[in-house]
Design brief:
Elements: H1 2-26, E1 31-33, E2 39-43, E3 54-68, E4 76-89, E5 96-108, E6 111-124, E7 130-143, E8 153-159, H2 163-172
Length: 177
């Protein structure tokens, strides 16, 4: 009997500890990549948006959120997002650096409430065809509306594309390389 009680107590403590380790992130605004803007094809200067003219392609490989939940009496969540990128070029001849624009937006109920634009620099080393890199955006303030909780909001990331790049992505389909 005492052994069963100890087992039950240990199980309750284990479940309680498991929920503590994940509950904060589960209560943060979720981060996701906007499909049409998750890939950026950069074309050779003066060329048409065609696969044969792609200089390099960059994809957002993932976005992971974190947040500080509101303190007692506050209605503001401070969120951050870490974004992983992967760039690919067809020839890896010389070393070259590029700067790419991307955005982070706060959304709720299908509407963009706030949007900020950023840039990140990356480098292809000589002979390198694939480069992976990341960037972090901190201090995203999310003011909770009346009767709203942090998970009623979202963090949306994507590349700040030209109209030609966006049209190219839509023609190429969801998994454009």
């Amino acid at each position: 009997m005492l052994q069963n009680l100890k087992f039950l107590l240990a199980a309750i403590v284990a479940v309680g500890l498991t929920s503590c380790s994940t509950s904060r992130l589960e209560r943060c605004p979720p981060a996701s990549v906007l499909v049409d803007t998750g890939t950026m094809a950069v074309f050779r200067s003066g060329s048409t948006p065609d696969p044969a003219n792609v200089l390099y392609t960059v994809q957002i490989a993932g976005a992971q959120q974190d947040c500080e939940l509101p303190k007692f009496g506050s209605r503001v969540v401070t969120a951050s997002v870490d974004i992983d990128f992967r760039a690919r070029r067809s020839s890896g001849s010389e070393a070259v650096s590029h700067v790419i624009p991307y955005f982070v937006a706060i959304t709720s109920e299908g509407k963009i409430l706030a949007k900020r634009e950023f840039t990140v620099q990356f480098t292809f080393d000589a002979g390198q065809q694939v480069a992976t890199f990341s960037d972090s955006v901190n201090s995203l303030a999310v003011s909770l509306g009346r009767d709203k909780k942090p998970t009623d909001y979202g963090i949306l990331v994507g590349f700040q594309l030209t109209k030609a790049q966006l049209d190219y992505n839509r023609r190429a389909g969801r998994y454009a390389q």
